[in-house]
């Protein structure tokens, strides 16, 4: 029997437990990237460039993701890396809140502290997030990978929503001291939730034959070169770079578009963002259901659905180009909802393909492969929003009109999605079995033949 079939499987409850880990991770991240961002800009009247640079810095640190995946590949267990990453993330978040508080009285010292804190946050997100996805990839049946991807992403969004509501209530009346207290409480609760969710899930035999036992342990650079030499892994890395760049480039310009072209108020533009997120959730759910019931060739289905989601996203962005040129008579909300559906379908199918490819290559390299793709995503997320906003400023300078400027940027993003669809086609189909193994309790093994 193939060595890949000797790993313990997790059922639906296990998938939801790993989703809880992602929700806990998201709960801490939203405090550092949203709440602290607002406090720096509004309450402390600091330049918006500062929190933007700090968030970009934490993405840059996540280029270390392959190293954290390699660590669990060598050791044969992922849970310690997940829990350790969550603890590191919590320490970084508390330090970031303390540094933000310090900025009110000692700006220079506070900024220096924030640089260190966001470095720690990047390490924590990289270690916990990479190994959570690697564990999900190696121990989820092919028939459930699309649903597992959707559950993980949806629960992360739920973590965002719950934390935003709870933190918002706890921060009233606002003070810098309360900010530090609330961040500390939520961070500690998130670590506890993640630890309880992962406890006992992995089982004693997480990886049937850890790298350190299966062979002479190669160093990290050798393993990374080996993974990069794999044609599918290399091509999928390029796909992730291009697709996530297209996905993130719209983040900072959609609400300004609604305000400048359609005259939306801040409340109305926020409502538009909610409409888009509703579409994203619908796209995720539909893709998860189809990916679960499709039958054979699920890996091929996820690849095809990834291509479809990219093309559909490009079509939706073409509609936004028309909206920019036509103006308020164009139906904006249905267009944005459609963009959300397409983005959700693309995202879940892409993550499902990522999990399939992670477990389709050489045994004991899943964490390193997942880390490589996580690093590619971090690069795109780190520069995507900045490039989108910068391209808009440049287009406005060239055209001296907002409509053609927005249309140009939306067209560029749509073109990136078309290129991403081509990259997904270029990757090819993962060579997986599409065979459903019996679900075993975590830690039990499929008998070798």
What are the SSEs and their pairings?
Elements: H1 12-43, H2 49-61, H3 65-75, H4 79-103, H5 107-138, H6 145-170, H7 176-198, H8 211-214, H9 220-229, H10 231-249, H11 254-262, H12 266-293, H13 298-326, H14 332-358, H15 366-399, H16 402-427
Q: Helical segment tally?
A: 16
Count the beta strands.
0
**Cα end-to-end separation:** 5 Å
Strand content range: under 5%
Mean pLDDT: 81
Helix/strand-derived class? Answer: mainly alpha
Low confidence ranges: 1-7, 204-209, 432-449
The helix fraction, in percent, is over 70%
Q: What kind of sheet is the major sheet? A: none
Shape: globular
* Gyration radius from CA atoms, angstroms: 22 Å
Describe this structure in words.
This protein has helices at about 10-45, 50-60, 65-75, 80-105, 105-140, 145-170, 175-200, 210-215, 220-230, 230-250, 255-260, 265-295, 300-325, 330-360, 365-400, 400-425. The chain contains 16 helices and no strands. The protein is globular, with a radius of gyration of 22 Å. Helix 3 packs across helix 5 and helix 15 (about 365-400) packs antiparallel against helix 16 (about 400-425). It has about 450 residues and is mainly alpha-helical.
In a nutshell, what does this entry contain?
By secondary structure, this protein is mainly alpha-helical. The chain has 16 helices and no strands.
Key traits:
449 residues, mainly alpha, 16 helices, disordered N terminus, disordered C terminus
């Amino acid at each position: 029997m193939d060595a890949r079939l000797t790993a313990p499987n997790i059922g639906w409850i296990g998938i939801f437990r790993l989703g809880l880990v992602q929700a806990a991770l998201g709960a801490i991240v939203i405090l550092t990237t949203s709440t602290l961002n607002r406090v720096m800009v509004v309450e402390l009247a600091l330049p918006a460039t500062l929190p933007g640079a700090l968030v970009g810095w934490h993405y840059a640190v996540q280029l270390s993701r392959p190293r954290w995946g390699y660590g669990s590949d060598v050791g044969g267990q992922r849970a310690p890396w997940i829990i350790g990453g969550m603890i590191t993330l919590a320490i970084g978040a508390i330090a970031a809140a303390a540094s933000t508080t310090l900025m009110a009285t000692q700006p220079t010292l506070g900024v220096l502290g924030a640089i260190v804190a966001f470095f720690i946050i990047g390490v924590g997100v990289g270690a916990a997030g990479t190994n959570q996805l690697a564990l999900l990839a190696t121990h989820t049946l092919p028939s459930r990978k699309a649903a597992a991807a959707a559950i993980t992403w949806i629960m992360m969004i739920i973590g965002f929503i719950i934390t935003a509501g709870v933190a918002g209530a706890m921060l009233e009346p606002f003070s810098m001291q309360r900010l530090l207290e609330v961040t500390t409480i939520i961070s500690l609760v998130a670590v506890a939730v993640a630890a309880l969710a992962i406890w006992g899930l992995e089982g004693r035999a997480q990886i049937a034959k850890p790298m350190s036992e299966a062979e002479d342990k190669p160093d990290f650079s050798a393993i990374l070169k080996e993974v990069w030499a794999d044609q599918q892994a290399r091509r999928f890395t390029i796909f992730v770079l291009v697709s996530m760049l297209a996905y993130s480039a719209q983040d900072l310009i959609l609400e300004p578009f609604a305000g400048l072209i359609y005259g939306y108020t801040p409340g109305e533009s926020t409502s538009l963002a909610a409409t888009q997120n509703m579409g994203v959730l619908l796209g995720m759910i539909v893709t998860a259901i189809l990916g679960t019931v499709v039958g054979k060739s699920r890996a091929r289905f996820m690849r095809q659905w990834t291509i479809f989601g990219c093309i559909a996203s490009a079509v939706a962005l073409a509609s936004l180009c028309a909206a920019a040129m036509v103006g308020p008579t164009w139906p904006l909300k249905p267009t944005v909802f459609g963009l959300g559906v397409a983005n959700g379908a693309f995202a879940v199918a892409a993550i499902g393909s990522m999990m399939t490819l992670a477990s389709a290559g050489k045994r004991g390299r899943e964490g390193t492969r997942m880390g490589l793709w996580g690093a590619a995503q971090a690069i795109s997320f780190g520069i995507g929003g900045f490039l989108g906003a910068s391209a808009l400023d440049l287009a406005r300078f060239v055209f001296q009109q907002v409509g053609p400027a927005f249309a140009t940027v939306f067209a560029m993003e749509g073109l990136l999605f078309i290129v991403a669809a081509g990259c997904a086609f270029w990757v090819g189909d993962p060579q997986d079995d599409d065979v459903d193994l019996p679900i075993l309790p975590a830690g039990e093994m499929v008998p070798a033949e």
